[in-house]
C-alpha cells in the first residue's frame, strides 16, 4: 500500500503487526518514539534553519524546535562577529570579571541562551541551527522523512512496537532493527554525498549519525 501520509503510516504499521487494536499505541508511542530517534540522531541539511535573534539581555529564548547550533554570529557595522560556545561552568568562571559590551561567547541553560559580556545595547544576532522535524499529526500529515524516506518511520515504529509487545521472534526483531538502522544511515550518507558532491569529503563533527540504538555520537553546542 501507499506510505505517504500519517493515516497510511498508521494503517501500514497495524498491517505489518497484524494488529488492529493498537491505534493509540501506534500514534502515541511507536511513531512518537521513532520521531524522538530521528531528531536525536540525524543532523542533515533539511534540518538546518536560520532565524534572527535580537540580543539585548543576558539571556534569550531558544527558538522553537531547537536541537543544536550550527553557526551563531552578531552583525555589527557590516561585520560578522562569531559567537563562541562555552559550557555553563566556563561561563561562570569568566562571569565575575566580565563587563557589559558586545557579546562574544554564549552557553545554553535549559531553554535559554546566555551571553557574555552582558549586552550593552541591542545587537542583531543570526542563528543557523538544527531544527526538529515537525511531528506527524492529523493536521500535519507528512514531512520530509515520511515523504522521502518512509522506511525510517515504518521500521522504527515496528522496532518500538516489538519492544512493547514482547514475544516477537528474535529474527524478525533483528530484521526490523537492521532495516531501521540501514534507512537512517542511507539518508545520512545520501545527504553527505550531495553536500560534498564534486569535492573531497571532509569530516564534520556537527554532522553525525550513529546507529539509532547507540548514544556514542559526538555533537557540539548541545543543550546542556
Structure description:
- With 224 residues, the chain is an alpha+beta fold.
- Helix content is 38%, strand content 21%.
- The protein folds into 2 domains: 6-45 and 142-195, no CATH class; 47-131, no CATH class.
- The strands form 2 sheets. The protein has a 4-stranded antiparallel sheet with strand order 1-8-3-4, with no helix packed on it. A 4-stranded mixed sheet has the order 2-7-6-5.
- α3 (88-95) links the parallel β5 and β6 (105-109).
- α1 crosses α5 and α5 runs antiparallel to α6.
- The protein is elongated, with a radius of gyration of 21 Å.
How many distinct folded domains?
Answer: 2
Report strand %: 15-25%
Task: Report the end-to-end length measured between terminal Cα atoms.
Answer: 43 Å
Any idea what the shape is?
elongated
Main sheet strand line-up: 1-8-3-4
The helical percent reads 25-40%
Detail the poorly predicted runs: 203-224
Question: In terms of topology, how is this protein built?
Answer:
Layout: H1 6-17, H2 23-41, E1 48-55, E2 59-61, E3 66-76, E4 79-82, E5 84-85, H3 88-95, E6 105-109, E7 112-116, E8 123-131, H4 144-148, H5 150-165, H6 170-195
Parallel strand pairs: 5-6
Antiparallel strand pairs: 1-8, 2-7, 3-4, 3-8, 6-7
Helix pairs in contact: 1-5, 2-5, 5-6
